[in-house]
From TrEMBL:
Residue numbers spanned by region Disordered: 130-174
Pfam families noted in UniProt: Phasin
Organism: Noviherbaspirillum galbum
Basic and acidic residues bias: start-end ranges: 165-174
Record-given protein name: Phasin family protein
InterPro entries noted in UniProt: PhaF_PhaI
Top-level taxon: Bacteria
Length: 174
């Protein structure tokens, strides 16, 4: 393995792993020889060899785990960086899109939510003014105010329809 991609402080373990993998066949033969010798010389040597093999296996497992952990950390950092860059670009794109849609709607004369709100406020003002002009009694003034009230109701109906259409289009507030 290339030592550039390993975690710091594992050079000895890297050398050990290279030696083990380079001479696997010889280790197998040595293991067979040790097995035969252990059978002849007793169980004590055999147990020692098993213990050494277990220790070697544990060191190799730890080295592999450290390498995988280091790679996993590096990949996680790369993924987080890419996600942050992507999120920033998406937000910029959304802002540009919203601005362009708003400009296009203004160009073709579609009222904004603010425009509709102003119209509704003005209608309410006119309704209050007409209400002040309409006397409680007296048919002459009442009949003169009736056309004005019907015009206010028509304008109000038009404003409400415009507001519904604008909310259906989800026009952003300008």
């Amino acid at each position: 393995m290339n030592s550039k991609h390993t975690a710091p402080g594992t050079d000895d373990d890297d050398k050990l792993m290279e030696e083990v993998s380079a001479s696997m066949h010889e280790i197998w033969k040595a293991g067979l020889g040790a097995y035969i010798k252990a059978r002849h010389e007793g169980n004590a040597i055999y147990r020692d060899l098993v213990k050494e093999g277990e220790q070697l296996q544990e060191r190799m497992r730890q080295t592999a785990a450290e390498r995988w952990s280091g790679m996993a950390d590096a990949l996680t950092k790369m993924a987080e960086g890419a996600a942050k860059r992507t999120a920033g670009q998406r937000e910029k794109l959304e802002a540009v899109f919203e601005e362009r849609v708003s400009q296009a709607l203004q160009t073709i004369g579609v009222p904004t939510q603010r425009d509709i709100d102003r119209l509704i406020e003005r209608i309410e003002e006119l309704r209050r003014d007409v209400g002040k002009l309409t006397p409680a009694s007296g048919s002459t003034r009442k009949s003169a105010a009736a056309p004005a009230q019907s015009r206010v109701k028509r304008i109000e109906g038009t404003a409400v329809q415009a507001k519904r259409k604008a909310s259906e289009r989800s026009v952003p507030r300008a």
